[in-house]
UniProtKB/TrEMBL annotation:
The chain crosses the membrane at residues 69-91, 111-134, 182-208, 313-331, 351-372, 384-402, 446-471. This is Sulfate transporter. Keywords: Cell membrane, Glycoprotein, Membrane, Phosphoprotein, Transmembrane, Transmembrane helix, Transport. Residues 499-657 form the STAS domain. It comes from Oryzias melastigma (Marine medaka).
Length: 674
């Protein structure tokens, strides 16, 4: 009671408003001219800045600390290169192309990222998921062109002798092209387009697209794609008629990884042993088992991508571009945070774009950053992208000297390498219970994306995952948490009455918090939750009052008539019940933005409650929210009611409501005296 008396003694003065900074908007033409002048002027310092920005290697390589960095870079580069060779050959099975093209892809990607990447640790090159997506496009185009997908010419003929004597050829850019030629042509053109899309995303600053690829969605996508990869490899595994043995090197490495100084090159050991066994056992001739076939040394002359195929694969390149960029940037930022440096996402997009565009002229297919090889680089002492240069040199040695030795390598062994590399993605199933406990929404997104990718297709699985993730976010904003708030005793703090104890709601004042943006999709949810919380819907209340007034008029007439007939007995009609509150305060601290539908909703809300004698006050609005409300004239013409409707704290709004109610009550009592 003492606090209320103090409040009533305070003079009724409008709360002070914060002074906004005056921002002068420059004319559009002057802005355009200044930007053109800034970007088109040429000077020595600007050329140097552009060069170092486009080629970060020019900036960091002169500062390279040879004694401190060289050992870690050489070791990590050699180890990754050794791992990369068998994987590059194996992942060509997924891409549907010859093994040599995987080596080309790994070589060029490492060189280009060394020159243009901003991450010190990321390993860019051939990646199973990208290879799978490329392979699906290649298989579809081969089928549409009439090639037999089950034909395995690598065990019979040399796939690089593109002659008219081949059993089946098609005309491509005026030249005869057999199955292997057509496959790499499709892979190269879809890779070229993916790189073009990535460069366009960089130019137009569209890197924000990757934010719609949430971590649960990407994990589910990778796990679902792993099932597709397993089914793709089944034909190679089952095509071998002799018993196969389990490859346990990865399990040994995982168990003893704390004791091992460097990762075991299990893939290379398996490839070497299997190649020797296949060669000396003559397995291809005895059992007609599928082998890698002839892998030539050196480089094939560059070739312009088949532009005639672009209209057929233009849409297929979009998910490739987005996924490739998303994995590269996310890995770059993850390892940059771990080691305390920064990366430039836009430059990363340029780098990965050129890692696709340039190699597409050299018979390569889509690349991306790979988590497993990046973690190997990090664990083996990588300091800079010099390690990528070392890895490229290892691949170059294989291309120049050792490639023919892989002729007898069984494809079933390559399939084993691919399947073993999927262990990490498949083990994500063990994390599902933990995901469910941490966030049911994230777990559902993971499951939906995984099943869609595994059961429908990789591209549609990605689309389903993105759409479902957005639907979940929209659902959250349409059904956000709402709460009535109470005051912490003897403080200016107000919190949720359902979440905290020892809170006291202000007398005859409801404080309502809506924890979501207020926009067209959830305005009805906002109104329903508010009406339910305060217990009064203004339109219905106003209708009841009008009916009561109308009934009161009728009963008063009847009462007078009955009084004349029944010696003055008066009939009493229905009596209107007064509301138990006089003010609603909307705590807008959890409303990040509002659209025109939201402002219109608030404007109508203020008016309707005012019609039944209830004030609606706004508290804790951010600056953009205030600007939107002013434009919608929620505060009246020329914002004349702004000082009486808008408050910067909930407590200031509560004090103002008490003052207004007390002043109104005193005015009524004075009127009753007269």
């Amino acid at each position: 009671m003492e606090e209320v008396s103090k409040v009533t003694e305070t003079p009724l003065v409008p709360p002070p408003l914060l002074a906004r900074r005056a921002r002068q908007q420059q004319p559009v033409m002057s802005v355009v001219k200044s930007k053109l002048r800034k970007n088109l002027t040429c000077s020595g310092s600007k050329v140097q800045k552009t060069l170092t920005s486009f080629f970060p290697v020019v900036r960091w390589l002169p500062k390279y600390k040879l004694k401190e960095y060289v050992w870690g870079d050489v070791m990590s580069g050699m180890i990754v290169g050794i791992i990369l060779v068998p994987q590059a050959i194996a992942y060509c099975l997924l891409a549907g192309v010859e093994p040599i093209y995987g080596l080309y892809t790994s070589f060029y990607a490492n060189i280009i990222y060394f020159l243009m990447g901003t991450s010190k640790h990321v390993s860019v090159g051939i990646f199973s998921l990208m290879s799978l997506m490329v392979g699906q496009v290649v298989d579809r185009e081969l089928f549409l062109s009439g090639f037999d997908l089950n034909d395995d010419p690598t065990s019979k003929v040399d796939s690089f002798n593109f002659t008219d004597d081949d059993p089946q050829t098609v005309d491509l850019m005026g030249m005869p092209c057999n199955k292997e030629c057509y496959a790499i042509s499709v892979a190269a053109v879809v890779t070229f387009l993916a790189g073009v899309y990535q460069i366009m995303m960089a130019v137009f600053q569209l890197g924000f697209v990757s934010v719609y690829l949430s971590t649960p969605m990407l994990d589910g996508f990778a796990t679902g794609a792993s099932f597709t990869i397993l089914t793709v490899q089944a034909k190679y595994l089952l095509g071998l008629k002799i018993p196969r043995h389990h490859v346990a090197g990865k399990e040994i490495q995982d168990r003893y990884k704390d004791r091992l100084k460097i990762p075991l090159p299990t893939e290379l050991v398996v490839v070497a042993g299997a190649t020797l066994a296949s060669h000396f056992g003559d397995l291809n001739a005895r059992y007609s088992s599928s082998v890698s076939g002839h892998i030539p040394t050196g480089f094939i002359p560059p070739k312009v991508p088949a532009f005639s195929l672009m209209p057929r694969v233009a849409l297929d390149a979009i998910p490739l571009a987005v996924i490739s960029f998303a994995f590269t940037v996310s890995l770059s930022e993850m390892f940059a945070k771990k080691h305390g440096y920064t990366v430039r996402p836009n430059q990363e997009m340029v780098a990965i774009g050129l890692c696709n565009i340039i190699p597409s002229f050299f018979h390569s297919f889509t690349t991306s950053a790979a988590l497993a090889k990046t973690m190997v680089k990090d664990s083996t002492g990588c300091q800079t992208q010099v390690s990528s240069l070392i890895s490229a040199l290892v691949v170059l040695l294989v291309l120049l000297f050792f490639a023919p030795f892989f002729h007898a390598l069984q494809k079933c062994v390559l399939a084993c390498i691919i399947i073993v590399s999927l262990r990490g993605a498949l083990r994500k199933f063990k994390d599902v219970p933990a995901k469910w406990r941490a966030s049911k929404n994230d777990a559902i997104v993971w499951l939906v994306t995984m099943f869609a990718t595994a059961l429908i297709s990789v591209e549609l699985g990605l689309l389903v995952g993105i759409i479902f993730s957005m639907i979940c976010i929209i659902f959250k904003t349409q059904n956000p948490k709402v709460s009535l708030m109470g005051r912490v005793s003897d403080t200016d703090l107000y919190e949720d009455l359902e979440e905290y104890t020892d809170l006291t709601p202000p007398p005859q004042v409801h404080i309502f918090r809506f924890q979501a943006p207020l926009y067209y999709a959830n305005k009805e949810s906002f109104l329903k939750s508010l009406y339910k919380a305060v217990g009064v819907e203004p339109f219905l209340e106003l209708t009841k009052r009008r009916k009561a007034e109308k009934a009161k008029g009728k009963t008063s007439k009847q009462a007078k008539a009955n009084a004349n007939k029944k010696n003055g007995d008066v009939f009493i009609g229905p009596i209107h019940k007064e509301l138990d509150f006089h003010t609603i305060i909307l705590d807008c601290s959890a409303i990040p933005f509002i659209d025109s539908s939201g402002t219109a909703t608030l404007k109508v809300l203020v008016k309707e409650y005012k019609d039944i004698g209830v004030s609606v006050l706004l508290a804790c609005c951010n600056a953009p929210l205030i600007d939107a409300l002013k434009k919608a004239q929620v505060f009246g013409k020329n914002d004349r009611e702004m000082s009486s409707l808008l408050f910067y704290t909930v407590h200031a709004a509560v004090l103002h409501a008490d003052q207004e109610h007390t002043a109104a009550a005193e005015g009524k009592s004075e009127d009753s005296l007269f």
